[in-house]
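Allow me, if you will, to draw on your knowledge of protein folds for a short while. I have a record of one protein: its chain in single-letter code and its fold written as discrete structure tokens. Kindly check, if you would, that the fold set down in the tokens agrees with what the sequence suggests. Thank you for your consideration; the sequence and its tokens are set out here:
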Amino acid sequence: MHSQVAALIETLIHDEYSPESVNKAISELTPDDVALALESIPLAQRRQAWANIKQANRLDILVEMRGESRQLLLKELDDSEIEALFTDVDAEDLLEITDSLPDRLVDIALKQMDTKQREYYQQGIVYDDDSVGRWIDHELLIASQSIRASEVMRLLKKSTPNYTDMIYLVNRTGRWVGCVKFDQLFKAQGHEPISSLIDEECTFINANTELTKASELLERSSLSALPVVDDNQILLGRFHAGLAMETWRLEYEAQQMSTAGLNEESDLFAPVKRSAATRGIWLGINLLTAFLASAFIGIFEATLQQVVALAVLMPVVASMGGIAGSQTLTLIVRGLALGQITRSNLKSLLSKELKVGGLNGILWAIVIGIVTLWWFESPMLGMVIGLAIIVNIVMAALSGVLIPVLLDKLRVDPALSGSVILTTVTDIAGFVAFLGLGTLLLI
């Protein structure tokens, strides 16, 4: 499937397509794959591609996009386009994207929902984003506890949702009573009351349960889905294996991105200023720890004598380059894993990352230069470390893009070995720049 996504990316990058060719390619892909392709091209081309996508396909694609990508796209749409987009939105889709929508757009979507979907939305929005009650599936088989097995069998002939291996029983007030597995139902006589077939070991999930905990409960149950109830035992819906797998995938991705101070909702081609601001916060936190390390080295000032200032500040240069490079590396490794990065968009991506590195390099060079001036009372030393910081962060951005791409070409896993090579490159670049400038300007 990655080859088809890559082919669509190249088509959209080169602007050599017609609306017919775009929609033909989209028809052969899932909405998730199309969303990946759109997120893999620069913003201007993304907007142009979106305009050529059939209206009927747009909402499914929008839901699958990352939060930041979705926000950037919606900013470009006028009210008439948004109203058309949300014509067929259901509660589950709106709950999926509501955090990235302004209240005005949520109101537009709600007005176009039918009463039942609006009720589902209001039911889910009261739960936290990491609670199972927000993400339940409403397509499930429900029956009254008072009917017979033959009536349930007729119900099964009408429709059976995915991830279904049981039917849920409720009383007259909608409270969950229990569940009946299909294997027991198929063995039963038609006249038997369905309540006599209830599986006593069948459990449920409270709507306030965290998603990861709910996934664990489902895994231990050996079932494909479990009922979800509120505090009053009212049956709200179900949590199935597809939702559990999605939970684990997002959890893993969030952990991977958080190690570099990034958000899993980040857009590959987000505006330079926005990307710089997001990553700059993490660089600032890292700066505090780097200066702490430098302060400990400064304890040996009497021993180091004439080169003490350079020795004390060396960890700052190395550390800033390392964290900047790891941020870029993490983003690129994710892009490679998802098939987002191709020969067509590599140049645009490299250009964007160098601009982010340059902007953050200048910003933190000024901050570090001022701190160095105050600490050592040497304007020249402040200028030396400032220039070294700019060089190292830009070099880190360049390495963070090229190293994983080259490793991927060599069929070496960039997620495993990329950080080791990157750290070595940024350390060497930082020390050469800093000590070289120090030799020229200070000694």
User: Anything to note?
Assistant: The two ends are 59 Å apart (CA to CA). The chain has a mean pLDDT of 84. The chain is about 65% helix and 5% strand. The CA atoms of residues 365 and 386 lie 4 Å apart.
